[in-house]
Write a structure and sequence with these properties.
The chain has strands at residues 6-8, 12-15, 19-20, 26-28, 31-35, 41-43, 47-49, 52-55, 61-64, 71-74, 79-83, 89-92, 97-101, 104-108, 111-113, 118-122, 125-128, 132-135, 139-141, 144-146, 151-154, 158-160, 163-166, 173-177, 181-183, 189-192, 194-198, 204-208, 213-216, 220-223, 226-236, 243-246, 251-254, 259-270, 273-276, 279-287, 290-293. It is mostly beta strands and 295 residues long. The chain is elongated.
Length: 295
């Protein structure tokens, strides 16, 4: 521990049990290697990664502060590689911790990223190259989530402000969301060759898209939770037809004053409950359950 900023310009081996604390900011510009024989490498000050950080040999990083919060920023030149560990990031102490990705995060082999104490904000790319990447905290996305035919699970609240959710070039990847889903649509959003499963009937999602949500190349959005469509426009993009399925146990609500538009080429299938008091425009509707039209 010490005062002032710490800049690592060359190779940096951060071994387990080593704490980096004090005031100021840690900045890494070269190759950082985090490895572990059982203990954690402990981050007690904000960290900006401009280089490449590799988690190897079950390397683990812990956010620690007695009070307040810490932020780890992967800059637009930064690359983080997760491999060989099941839980590379965790927290204890403090609250409101942040991971901000402006560069690239690669996951190989399947990991669980952190706990509910870290909010993940993605402006860059998160690539799942094999296995399942599980994110236990809230995710705010304006960048790219690239599944490459693999899978991702988000157990916290998900907010989509823009960006692309890519399932894969050939095989569709699967994104499971168990928390609330909010689509703000501050910029266009594309679902490309991906299967999205929105579950948890006790958690209500809100879609208030100011820009269209485009589904293309056979993308599928499955709902078994509750989603309110305040201002949502879904369009069919390139490639195979895409679909939105309100499955058994799912509820889609278009409230008074709300609007939901499902464009030509998209299929809306309802096997749950569809409640409409606002404006609803559907090109193709396949219904096998409850329609409540009061608007």
């Amino acid at each position: 521990a010490g005062t002032g900023n710490l800049v690592m310009s060359g190779a940096f081996n951060w071994l387990d049990g080593a704490d980096i604390g004090g005031s100021g900011t840690l900045t890494t510009n070269g190759v950082t290697t985090i490895s572990s024989a059982g203990d954690l490498s402990v981050m007690q000050k904000p960290w900006i990664n401009n280089g490449t950080t590799n988690f190897v040999s079950n390397g683990r990083l812990g956010y620690y502060t007695a009070v307040g919060s810490l932020t780890w920023t992967n800059s637009n030149t930064g690359v983080i590689n997760f491999q060989g560990t099941s839980v590379p990031i965790s927290t204890w102490g403090g609250s409101g911790h942040q991971f901000i990705n402006q560069g690239t995060l690669n996951s190989v082999g399947g990991q669980t990223f952190g706990d509910a104490g870290i909010t993940i904000t993605n402006f860059g790319a998160i690539d799942v190259n094999s296995g399942t990447l599980t994110l236990n905290s809230g995710v705010i996305n304006s960048g790219a989530l690239n599944l490459n035919g693999n899978s991702m699970t988000i157990n916290g609240a998900t907010t989509l402000n823009g960006g692309t959710l890519n399932g894969g070039a050939t095989t569709a990847g699967t994104l499971a969301m168990t928390g609330a889903l909010t689509i703000n649509g501050l910029a266009p959003i594309v679902f490309d060759n991906i299967i999205i499963n929105k579950s948890n009937s006790t958690t209500q999602g809100v879609l208030a898209a100011n820009a269209p949500v485009t589904l293309q190349n056979g993308a599928v959005l499955n709902n078994t939770g509750v989603i309110t469509l305040n201002n949502a426009t879904f369009t069919q993009g390139v490639g195979a037809a895409s679909s939105i399925n309100n499955n058994l146990g799912g509820t889609l609500i278009v409230p008074a004053g709300g609007s939901a538009v499902f464009g030509a080429g998209l299929v809306l299938s309802n096997a749950g409950t569809l409640i409409q008091t606002g404006n609803l425009v559907v090109g193709t509707l396949v219904n096998a359950a409850t329609l409540d039209f009061t608007g």
